[in-house]
Write a structure and sequence with these properties.
Elements: H1 2-7, H2 10-16, H3 22-38, H4 40-51, H5 53-76, E1 84-85, E2 88-89, H6 94-123, H7 131-165, H8 168-188, H9 203-216, H10 234-240, E3 244-245, H11 278-295, H12 298-304, H13 310-316, E4 318-319, H14 335-360, H15 368-400, E5 409-412, H16 417-441, H17 447-476, H18 494-518, E6 524-526, E7 535-536
Parallel strand pairs: 4-5
Antiparallel strand pairs: 1-2, 3-6, 6-7
Helix pairs in contact: 2-3, 3-6, 3-17, 4-5, 4-6, 4-17, 5-6, 5-8, 6-17, 7-8, 7-14, 9-11, 11-17, 12-17, 14-16, 15-16, 15-18, 16-17
Length: about 550
């Protein structure tokens, strides 16, 4: 609620209260959103290497709360906002801008420790060695995201209206108080939480260790059988509680890091060998595989960035009246993204997954990459509809000779509904799917860092959108031509920009299909000291495109 209470309507605050231009406000929103989703890389590293998830979240949440309090002060006190005289408003002073953006970026720093750790800490509460809890864990990310978007729904429906009609101070103060209350409730559960023990001192260091060892052994010959590579025996993994990851036939050059040295060929229980193990090498392979998938999530994240930027500005030009006395805030249309998600998550979890589970035998119903592919395809359809609606808006503008930047186009804002609803449905597949994919496929001791593939993809997508908006506005606005994205959207060619996004989204979907065909799923052995048998986790090495053959 706190995050979306700020993000959903920030572009309107920047243009109406700080009097920034359209392109500048879109760029600043994207840069802040990008920072919010990029900083989790640092927070996850600190959690996995030093403090653990609980304490990293604890410290970061207090920073987050401080940022919300400062932001509420920035929008509440008159001396922190520009003044207007006879309808003419001054630009914000450097001090006002500095205080406002400092509060925003303090929130971004706090988010760096909360976003990657709260979801993974929640997933840690399930015991992988307990069959019942492991089954429940399959649904965890669906319902975790569901509860998160309940807060987002309140933000886009209620807080946005309060901000525009009752005051920005109240509109930001409510989520600040709500955040403090939720943290109090979280800390009440401290005595009963499970804490996952770190089994590696520095997981990130192991990645570099494997790369260095592979480089040093680059001239050595790989053995014919993977069983001849360095690996600890099963007893070592049982005693330490670590998970053994099985060899996969990809990136064979990295296997050279696990070539046995001459002094340690016979002792497979000695962890002091100078060679890396197959499990360590496979961890690096997993990271490279996730990087490949991460790259093809950047364009979908750019599409998602439109919800709180250009979609909102587009909505402000349309007829928002609902009856004679009520006007819909443009940012409130984002609630339909949340509505469609809240309706789709239970349907997906309770109907789609059991139905597909019977058909495929997969506990998830469909593979993780299938889920992402469906979401990306729906997103392409959504941006195609956004393009078609904008073409119609431009036609109505031409028919009614709408010229001024504040003139309302005689076209209902509800024309934008389909693109919002479809993006919400797409999020059920790709947003939740990405979070689960990166958690599930990460090396065991890097699951907080692994989920930052999800958050950083959104962050880079926002930065990419900021770059695209800035460059497109600069290039198309030169030479006296009509800019694609100008301060006056009634005299711009936003339809061309949406068409551009449609083309690159379709191309990206093709690249995703190729990348998914190259991805090899993690396959690990789960063992516990109190179990008489060893079982292999069912993350099979599915190399078919999108995992279609299951």
């Amino acid at each position: 609620m706190a995050f979306y209470g700020v993000a959903s309507n920030l572009v309107n605050y920047l243009t109406t209260q700080l009097h920034e231009e359209t392109v500048a406000s879109v760029r600043n929103v994207n840069n802040w959103s990008g920072a919010v989703w990029i900083t989790p890389i640092l927070g996850a590293y600190i959690a996995d290497t030093y403090l653990g998830r609980y304490w990293t979240f604890t410290v970061s949440s207090l920073i987050y709360a401080m940022g919300m309090i400062l932001l509420t002060m920035a929008v509440s006190f008159k001396f922190m906002k520009p003044t207007c005289t006879n309808g003419v408003c001054n630009k914000a002073s450097p001090l006002q801008i500095a205080f406002f953006y400092s509060a925003l970026y303090i929130i971004a720093i706090g988010a760096g420790g909360t976003k990657p750790n709260i979801s993974t800490f929640g997933a840690d509460q399930f015991d992988d060695y307990n069959p019942h809890e492991k089954k429940l864990k399959v649904s965890f990310f669906n319902w975790w995201m569901f509860s998160s978007f309940v807060g987002a729904l309140f933000a886009t429906l209620c807080l946005v209206y309060i901000q525009e009609n009752l005051g920005w101070g109240l509109g930001y103060g409510i989520p600040a108080v709500g955040l403090l209350l939720s943290l109090f409730i979280f800390y009440l559960g401290t005595p009963i939480y499970r804490h996952k023990v770190r089994k590696t001192k520095s997981p990130a260091r192991e990645l570099f260790q494997v790369l260095i060892a592979a480089f040093n052994n680059r001239k050595l010959q790989l053995p014919d059988s993977p069983s001849e590579l360095q690996e600890f025996d099963l007893q070592y993994y049982i005693q330490t509680g670590k998970r053994q990851v099985h060899h996969t036939p990809v990136l064979r050059c990295l296997d050279k890091a696990a070539i046995k040295d001459g002094s340690n060929n016979a002792d497979t229980s000695n962890p002091s060998s100078s060679s890396c193990t197959v499990t360590q090498v496979e961890g690096v392979k997993l990271v490279f595989g996730m990087m490949l998938i991460w790259l093809v999530t950047l364009i979908p994240s750019t599409i998602w960035a439109q919800i709180n930027t250009l979609f909102v500005k587009q909505g402000t030009t349309l007829d928002r009246n609902l009856g004679p006395n009520f006007q819909i805030p443009a940012a409130s249309l984002g609630s339909f993204v949340t509505f469609s998600m809240l309706l789709s998550v239970p349907m997906y979890d309770r109907f789609f997954v059991p139905f597909m589970r019977k058909k495929t035998g997969n506990p998830r119903g469909i593979t993780l990459l299938q889920r992402l592919g469906i979401g990306f395809a729906i997103q392409v359809i959504a941006i195609a509809i956004a393009y078609a609606v904008e073409v119609r808006r431009m036609h109505v503008i031409s028919m009614h000779h709408v010229v001024g930047p504040k003139e309302i186009v005689p076209m209902s804002i509800f024309w934008l509904l389909p693109q919002y609803v479809l993006l919400g449905i797409a999020d059920v597949f790709n947003a939740i799917g990405l979070l689960e994919f990166f958690y599930d496929q990460s090396p065991e001791d890097m699951q907080s860092l692994g989920t930052t593939f999800f958050t950083s993809g959104i962050g880079v997508g926002n930065f990419l959108n900021s770059f695209l908006v800035t460059m497109v506005a600069k290039i198309t606005g030169t030479g006296g031509g009509k800019s694609w994205i100008g301060n006056n959207l009634n005299d711009s060619h936003l339809d061309y920009y949406y068409g551009f996004l449609l083309v690159i989204s379709a191309l990206n979907l093709g690249v995703f299909l190729w990348a998914s065909s190259r991805y090899v799923y993690k396959k690990e052995t789960l063992q516990a000291l109190n179990e008489d048998c060893i079982r292999i986790d069912g993350k099979t090495m599915d190399t078919s495109p999108l995992g279609l053959q299951v």
